[in-house]
């Protein structure tokens, strides 16, 4: 019981305490500074406020400065996030227009296998290139094989999915014929079959 309570205390966000303290500081200082003199006199605070008004004003300034800095931090974080997303979209668009044969074949595998997640070799050039462009996302589940090195689970990022279509991936429209399917299978990345064999040996 004591251990759980101690863990809760450690997990408590210290910034919430600071936020509450600063909020009360601003409220109390503003109340003391702007209350009518008659009301302060009635509360017995007139001499206290007149004697320490510079400290009360300083406290209010500190509190306001804290909230202004928090607001600027939120605005700055939002601006950085927006800029990062914009650069990611530009990177994806640029890469989509310059896909080479191996990269296009790799992306076709998601459609050919009808899977949203594929196990791929992390050191493969096409895989690394698509990761750097923001088109592929690593989901973890890393494994190491002697034949083709480390593998992990990957998926196509949400932002990249809207840019990938049959025309970009050079897939036939509608249901492919037997000849079209054979042609697509011939262009599959060579490491796909080696990963399948590696799984069988590992099993």
pLDDT < 50 runs, ≥5 residues: 197-203
Quaternary assembly: single chain
Largest beta sheet: what is the strand line-up?
1-3-2
Tell me the radius of gyration: 31 Å
Strand content: 5-15%
Sheet with the most strands, sense and barrel status: 3 strands, antiparallel
Beta strands, count: 3
Structural class: mainly alpha
Given the C-alpha coordinates, what overall shape results? rod-shaped
- Number of helix segments? 10
N-to-C span:
44 Å
Give the helix level as a range of percent: 55-70%
SSE order, one letter for each helix or strand:
HHHHHEHEEHHHH
Could you explain how this protein is built, in words?
The chain has 203 residues and is mostly helical. The chain is built from ten helices and three strands. The protein has helices at 2-11, 14-34, 37-43, 46-96, 101-112, 125-132, 158-161, 166-169, 178-186, 190-202; strands at 118-121, 136-145, 149-156. The chain has a three-stranded antiparallel β-sheet. Helix 2 crosses helix 4. The two termini are 44 Å apart.
Task: Give a brief description.
By secondary structure, the chain is mostly helical. 68% of the residues lie in helices and 11% in strands. Helix 2 (14-34) crosses helix 4.
Based on the model shown, name its key terms.
11% strand, disordered C terminus, mainly alpha, 203 residues, 10 helices, three-stranded antiparallel β-sheet
Secondary structure: elements and pairs:
Blueprint: H1 2-11, H2 14-34, H3 37-43, H4 46-96, H5 101-112, E1 118-121, H6 125-132, E2 136-145, E3 149-156, H7 158-161, H8 166-169, H9 178-186, H10 190-202
Antiparallel strand pairs: 1-3, 2-3
Helix pairs in contact: 2-4
């Amino acid at each position: 019981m004591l251990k759980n309570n101690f863990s809760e205390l450690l997990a408590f966000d210290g910034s919430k305490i600071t936020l509450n303290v600063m909020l009360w500081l601003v409220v109390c200082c503003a109340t003391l500074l702007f209350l009518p003199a008659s009301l302060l006199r009635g509360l017995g605070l007139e001499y206290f406020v007149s004697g320490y008004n510079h400290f009360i004003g300083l406290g209010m300034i500190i509190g306001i400065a804290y909230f202004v800095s928090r607001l600027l931090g939120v605005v700055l974080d939002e601006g950085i996030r927006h800029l990062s997303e914009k650069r990611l979209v530009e990177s994806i668009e640029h890469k989509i227009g310059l896909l080479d044969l191996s990269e296009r074949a790799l992306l076709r595998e998601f459609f050919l296998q009808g899977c949203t997640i594929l196990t791929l070799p992390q050191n493969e050039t096409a895989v690394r290139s698509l990761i750097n462009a923001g088109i592929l996302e690593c989901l973890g589940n890393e494994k190491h094989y002697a034949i083709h090195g480390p593998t992990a689970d990957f998926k196509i990022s949400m932002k990249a999915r809207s840019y990938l279509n049959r025309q970009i991936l050079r897939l036939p429209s509608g249901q492919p014929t037997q000849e079209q399917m054979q042609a697509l299978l011939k262009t599959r990345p060579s490491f796909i079959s080696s990963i399948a064999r590696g799984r069988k040996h590992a099993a």
